Each structure stands twice: as structure tokens, then as C-alpha cells.
Amino acid sequence: MNRTIQYTITEKDSGLRIEQFLRRRGYSGQNLAEIKRMPKSILVNGVHYYMRQILTAGDILQVIICETKNSEKIPPVEIPLDIIYEDEDIIVINKPAGMPIHPSMNNYYNSLANALAWYYQEQGKPFIFRCCNRLDRDTSGLTVVSKHLISGSILSTMTKNREVHREYLAIVKGSVTPAAGTICAPLARKEGTIIERTVDFEHGEEAITHYRLVKEANGHSLVSLKLETGRTHQIRIHMKHLGFPLIGDYLYNPDMEHMSRQALHSHHMEFAHPITGEWMSFTAPLPADMANIMTDK
CB–CB of 187/235 below 8 Å? Predict the structure, then answer.
């Protein structure tokens, strides 16, 4: 993927070495090392510069990213994509339920990565898969994928620093009480399985979920959930811990009367754009299988 990122140097940044300036913009040490290996990747006022050279107010700094490799073991497959937003740095997708993020032994040709590999192959562009928020196979909704190493690294750091704000919608049976609150229950791997997790106050990792009742209909509750941490299966286990497990959850509550997958949807996402700093906000409406349950009969 080719991308030229341009900066105009201000008085505030005058006198910095190029590597210092880029570090302050979120570039990692590994990013800088990879950029150095690319031919003529740093231009100042159209002239090739080295990372150690000094910037002056008014300079036009260009970082030229040239990635030619493709992700190995991700065969391109023609699968429709619901693209919510795309620019030179990121692509935001509304993922359907039943689609894994990555290829695996049992799902080698039907993942989001396969679909994106096809999408970029058709454009004649190399593709390295960098997904910044991984959803379970049966969780629908918004996910963001970086299109080059810089946006990928910065978004990864933002996610670790809890600067990517996500809201999920879930459906549970019954009337959620209390109607709002915070669940603080550490999570750990369940003994005897590599997939399931469980609440473990002695050995678990910190996990915090804020929830709020949105609507009640047909004996079910639609709940909004915001995460402070991003542990595996966090929402599914926390709602079960509260006494209101998600319907359709084959692992933690196999109540398949109305849903054949866990009733969980990545509904809303906000973050500062990794390159421009512009505030980004995206929403994916409730999918039909969940909306039908919450429609007043």
C-alpha cells in the first residue's frame, strides 16, 4: 500500500530532528526502522532527508510509505463488504454475524480478512491485514482496519490506551435491574478449556463494563454496553455475572429460541483519526435478527 503523509512544520516543532517529530506524532521505533528501509521515504521540501536531520518552521515534511508485501495465508475470496467509511489510512466495516475476523482451520475462506484481500487485489493494491478491534465470529457490527503500518501502529496504541470508544448493543431475557451500572469483575481462562473465560477475583485480569438499559419489549431487554477494558468475551461473561446472559450464546447461555448466535452488536465507535487527528464517529444500525426481537408486536 502506497501512502504519502504530509506535515507542515510549525514554530513549535522547529529544531526537532525528523525522528523526534515523528515520535511525537505516534510513530513507534519499529515504524521508524521500517520507514528507513524504504527508498527515499523521507522528503523535506522535496529533498531526501535522513531521520537525524533538523526541521525548520515552514518545512514541508513528507513520509512516503511503500508496502509491497501481502499477508501470507490469507487467500482472496469474493465476499461482499458493508463499508461504512474508507480513506487512505483506515477502512471501517459493518461486519455481519457468522463472519470470522481471521482465517482459521475451520473458516479458511470466509473471514473478513479474505474479503479485504479480494477487495484490494481487485484494485491492484498489496494487502497486509491489520484489524484494530477484533470481534467474535458471531458478533456483528463495526470494526476498523488499518491500511498501512503507521495508522496500524497508532490505532493499536490508542486501543491499548483506551482512546477508542466503543458502544455495543446486546439482548437479554427479562427486565434488567438495576437499569444502569458498572460491572467490575476480573476475567481469566476457564480451567480445562482454551476458549471459555470466567470471572476469577483471585487470578483474573481487570475487566470493567458500563451498562444501561435502552428498551424493553416482548419479554427482552436491549442493553447498551461500553467497555473500559477489552478482555475476551468480556460482555458475554459480565452480563451472565449480572444475572442476564445474552440470548443465543452457545458458550455461556444456549438459549436459542429467538437467536442462533449471541445477541451482540458493535453499534457505535469514536476515536481521533490516527493520522489527521480529526474526531471520527461511526454507527451501525441494529441487524435484523436483533431488531425483530425488540420490535413491539
Answer: no
Burial (CB < 10 A; 0-12, 13-18, 19+), residue 16, is middle
- In the chain, how many H helices and how many E strands? 6, 16
Bridge partners of residue 205, in order along the sequence: 187
Cα angle 18, 62, 50; round to 5: 40
Residue-wise pLDDT for 90-103, tens only, equals 999 999 999 999 98
pTM: 0.92
Confidence of residue 176 (pLDDT cuts 50, 70, 90): very high
Active site residues: 136
Measured CA angle at 115 (ends 136, 41), to 5 deg: 105
Query: For cell 458478533, what's the residue?
Result: 139
| 138-157 average pLDDT score | 95
- Say how far apart CA 222 and CA 293 lie, in whole Å: 9
Burial of 67 (0-12, 13-18, 19+ CB in 10 A): middle
Q: How many CB atoms lie within 10 A of CB 82?
A: 12
Confidence bin at 297 (pLDDT 50/70/90): low
Whether the bond between 274 and the residue before it is cis, its omega within 30 degrees of 0, is no
Can the peptide bond before residue 126 be classed as cis, meaning omega within 30 degrees of 0?
Answer: no
Contacts of 278-281 spanning 24+ positions with Cβ under 8 A: 280/85
